[in-house]
Amino acid sequence: QVQLQESGPGLVSPSQTLSLTCTVSGVSITTNYYFWNWIRQPPGKELEWMGAIDSSGNTYYSPSLKRRTSISRDSSKNQFTLQLSSVTPEDTAVYYCAREREFRRVYSSLPMVRGQGTQVIVSS
Predict the structure, then answer these.
(1) How far, in Å, CA of 87 to CA of 65, rounded?
(2) Are 9 and 121 contacting, i.e. CB atoms less than 8 angstroms apart?
(3) Which helix (H) or strand (E) holds 7?
(4) Which residues in 11-92 belong to E strands, given as ranges?
(5) DSSP code, position 17
């Protein structure tokens, strides 16, 4: 059974870099062929796809966040990581990591294979 778990700070100061890690169990993140995604939902707003890394290590980013976003992986730990720089209060959201078999950028609902989500607040 595949399980994903997000971890990281719940509170980040403005202008700092947010770093979140998704730990995956039950399948290797290098197993072909999956997309490992980061998605967020700000309070009162829709789901927003942020980016993904595929089984081969290729990365994909939302155009609106590309300048501030970096996704990487540690295959030895079966983890992938999101870094979001220069955060502002508008980056306050619940952040999810998720697995997909196909590449997608639009989410009207939470994906089936995902972590439970982690709340991140950007505030001084």
Answers:
(1) 11
(2) no
(3) strand 3-7
(4) 11-12, 18-25, 35-41, 48-54, 59-61, 69-74, 79-84
(5) -
Q: Tens digit of pLDDT for each residue in 65-117? A: 999 999 999 999 999 999 999 999 999 999 999 999 999 999 999 999 999 99
Give the separation between CA 4 and CA 69, rounded to whole angstroms: 20
CA dihedral angle for residue 22, residue 47, residue 119, residue 30, rounded to 10 degrees: 0
Helix boundaries (H) for 24-106: none
Q: What percent of the chain has pLDDT over 90?
A: 99
Residue type, 81: T
Which residue pairs, CB below 8 angstroms and at least 24 apart, start in 13-17? 13/122, 13/123, 13/124, 14/87, 14/88, 14/89, 14/122, 14/123, 14/124, 15/86, 15/87, 15/88, 16/87, 17/83, 17/84, 17/85, 17/86, 17/87
Please state, in angstroms and rounded to a whole number, the distance separating the CA atoms of residues 71 and 74: 11
